[in-house]
Amino acid sequence: MKETPLISVIEDFNLYVVSEMPGSDIYRESDIQLKPQLMPCFQKEFQSYSSSGCVDEHLADPFKEDNIMNSSMSSLTSHKETTTKADDTNAGNGKATVLMSDQTGEELPSVSMNFFYATAREKEIERYGEFLQCLSGNVDDHVESDILGGTFFGEQHHELFSPQNIELQAAGGQHDKLGASFQIFPEFLQRDEACKYSKESLGSLSKESVKEADQRHRGIRRHLHFGAAISCNHAGNGTHETANLCLPARQTDFENLVPPHVETRGISGIWQAGSCSQTATLCSSFSPSACESVRSAQNYGNRALSACIPSGGDLHLNSFVRSESVGSEFSTSMKLGSNPHQQEETLMSDRDHYLCKEIDGIPVLSFLGEIYSHLGYEQQESQAAAGAGSSSYQSSSIMQTPCDSLHLIPYEQQASLCKGTMPSSEYADIVEFSQMSPERNRKKAKYTIKSEGCRRCNCKKSRCLKLYCECFAAGIYCLDTCSCENCINKPEYEDTVLDMRQQTEARNPLAFAPKVVSNATNSPANMMEEGKWMKTSSSRHKKGCNCKKSKCSKKYCECFQGGVGCCYGCRCEGCYNPYGNKTETIYRRAERWNNPSQEQLDTLESHNDCIKAERPNQFSSTWEELADIGQLTPPSHCLLGAVASSGSLNIRDCSKKFLGQSQQESSVLSPSGYLNWHHSPSSLTPKLYGCEALPELSSDSFFCNMMEDATPETLKNTCTPSTEGVKSSSPNQKWVSPPKIRSHELRSSSSQGLRSGWKFIMQDLPSFPSLAPYSKSQAAIHQNDGDRKGSTGYQ
DNA sequence: GAGTTTGAAACT
DNA sequence: CAGTTTCAAACTC
């Protein structure tokens, strides 16, 4: 290993290290051409970052020399090609990514977001610099390069820092791909023990000076920025439609990173995820969970897919509602790009190629629409999306589509993952579906929905502008694959859609919030344990159900649908929710979650096989959010943000209660405190930024209920005898505010709880941007109503 | 695939 | 805020 390049490598985007790697010539000769238009993206980052005073001259004007960029791009992918042929797919992927970054100089919101993220994580990165000292010693070249390349970041487990494992990663990690290479893992950065462990594993500690380490970490920081930039460009890989479809459940992650000043119209509110669930992909550019999801895919098969395909409950795709903002800008630039052929390659808008599409001759699964619609969500996220919302499906990477994530997985593996996630027959149908014409797709949509847990609406009268519409509710535009009639929820009616969202939000600030919120009581590992329940025992529906006849054991019940048990917020009668009911103590529920009885499993299975199939999605979505969102987001932020989005709620009391908690949590959960829950301007005002201000609140009911969400059920149930076993009715037909003492207890215990990993998480946060003039869209609506008046009975 | 059931959303 | 209506998904046949 050469000693000298180390510093310069970092200072120069790791270029030199890469160039000295075996096979690096391939990259020098690579046909990857970073378009000049991409420059603004980087410039912004670097310039913004110049305050740190560590921007090199060529960084100040990083694109002055095309070679630099080309080399940079090469460095990002070089280690892949120098490892195994199996990774060849990355080359194509990387190329696609770069090409997708084709911009026309437009400022990319995502860039700011990325920058913000990176900046916000500066502290952690500082710590990471310290960590690097632990590794700088005897790590050989390719290991180093791999670390710099991001593979290192891509792993959350300390074990991976052992020389052997690093070797393995460098040699052929499946996720050692472009996307995964840009992982930023704040969680990892927070682990002092990681450094400790690495020291032990490597057996030789760094002898480099702190200064050198600092230089290195600076370089890495830049590298991260670069990666972020790529990621953001990645995000813009599609038209509105693509973005809409591919929204992962983890959009929230990304939105959380959005600084207040960033225009986030395209990212309505905050996103979720919940899910597409969401989600596993958008986040991939920023969070460990993304990489984890990829790895999980490799290790656990179907889980990967679930990570990418959140189920309805957790998914929230709000952020991408305004795909026109983010998505359209990208799409526009894409459309205007100079290379139609390349665009054609990268864009996945062709619905005839939802699945099994080839990019650069490499077969990849392109999960769009039907499959990703509810990433997020519950967690969805998005959704949808992502799911997003997340899944809730509910319930993100931001800018990386699920498709992109999947691109990191060889086709065969993706296929197996798909098969592992669903019955073979359904898988076959999905494939068949993907191969059908749009016309047939439409007809088949319903089936796809059922089999995949991804939804497309079938609205007839609401014009997809009310929460009746699942697309609208998930914060996404309807697609051609929807079976809706007179649909207005389309980009061409953007203003109208936004207005309706605004109205809906005014009516219910949480209307677009994920339906399922989680208390992170379990580690991702626990939650992902094979055959176990995937959602935490304390996950619950944000508002609670009101079931009368379904006994909360059918999908009529939103709790059941979201895969969570009923809680006190529910007003259900005769609750037989197999996930849990109100009379159940938290301990019992937790026990059940960890060790579901056969009867319970049978119940679930008999009631809805689909739920069972989706569970992995929900899990992945959930734990991912625990992994990254949870790390980044103090509960109170989430709550405040959610409430703030209304602009009218009065939760002053509750907010006060939470303020201290949030601050405390911030210090505990997020060293970079201010990097939390940055919603869209419309949903979270800058005042809330950094917990400096509290929103005006009108009713503490919401907050108290949310608090109750986070309140151990033992506290809630102390006065609620169970009279008929699991059967119960709702003694409280209305939401109840927890006794003050509960809040106090909760608050006082929050510190302990949080330190032990007990976090409250709203999987996806709310709100669409409410930027469009009401009158304008209203006029459009009226006009539309007029057009339809008397014929549709539209409300 | 049509019809029914269900409960959330919207409305009054 | 309660009651009613509307709506679309879930479900059944």
UniProtKB/TrEMBL annotation:
InterPro entries: CRC (IPR005172), Tesmin/TSO1-like_CXC (IPR033467), TSO1-like (IPR044522)
Subcellular location: Nucleus
GO cellular component assignments: nucleus
Annotated region described as Disordered, given as residue ranges: 715-753, 775-795
CRC domain location: 453-580
Compositional bias segments (type: Basic and acidic residues): 784-795
A Pfam family recorded for this sequence: TCR
GO molecular function, one term: DNA-binding transcription factor activity
Polar residues composition bias: residue spans: 715-735
UniProt keywords, alphabetically: Nucleus
UniProt similarity note: Belongs to the lin-54 family.
Identification of the protein by name: Uncharacterized protein LOC105133384 isoform X3
Gene name as annotated: LOC105133384
